[in-house]
């Protein structure tokens, strides 16, 4: 443990990457939200954390949880950064594909019966 009032080297307060913002501007973001970077949007003018996040997302689609883990940022901080990037058009967020609906049990029983008759 560190003495009271002293931080470990390299430790950054959570409000530093977000520029002091504590809550995301969008309430629809969760850990399973898929993030797609807009390659046409210039990265100039972004702060260092947002720039790093964008470079991480540019190769393809990632979930918010993956980005948070890979960048070693708390999920709450990542949500604030992502919300700002979605607002500016740098990122597009998509809800994950919902789980498939359950199959009709009656249909499965009919298929099984037909297979048994073969």
Automatic annotation (TrEMBL):
<feature type="region of interest" description="Disordered">
    <location>
        <begin position="1"/>
        <end position="24"/>
    </location>
</feature>
<dbReference type="InterPro" id="IPR007995">
    <property type="entry name" value="DUF742"/>
</dbReference>
<dbReference type="Pfam" id="PF05331">
    <property type="entry name" value="DUF742"/>
</dbReference>
<feature type="compositionally biased region" description="Basic residues">
    <location>
        <begin position="1"/>
        <end position="10"/>
    </location>
</feature>
<protein>
    <recommendedName>
        <fullName>DUF742 domain-containing protein</fullName>
    </recommendedName>
</protein>
């Amino acid at each position: 443990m560190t003495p009271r009032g002293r931080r470990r080297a390299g430790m950054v307060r959570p409000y530093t990457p977000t520029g002091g913002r504590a809550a995301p501007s969008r309430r629809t973001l969760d850990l399973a939200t898929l993030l797609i970077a807009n390659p046409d949007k210039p990265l100039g003018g972004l702060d260092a954390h947002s720039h790093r996040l964008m470079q991480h997302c540019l190769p393809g689609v990632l979930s918010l949880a993956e980005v948070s883990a890979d960048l070693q940022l708390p999920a709450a901080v990542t949500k604030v950064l992502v919300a700002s990037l979605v607002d500016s058009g740098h990122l597009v967020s998509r809800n994950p594909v919902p789980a498939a609906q359950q199959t009709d049990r009656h249909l499965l029983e009919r298929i099984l019966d037909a297979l048994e008759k073969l």
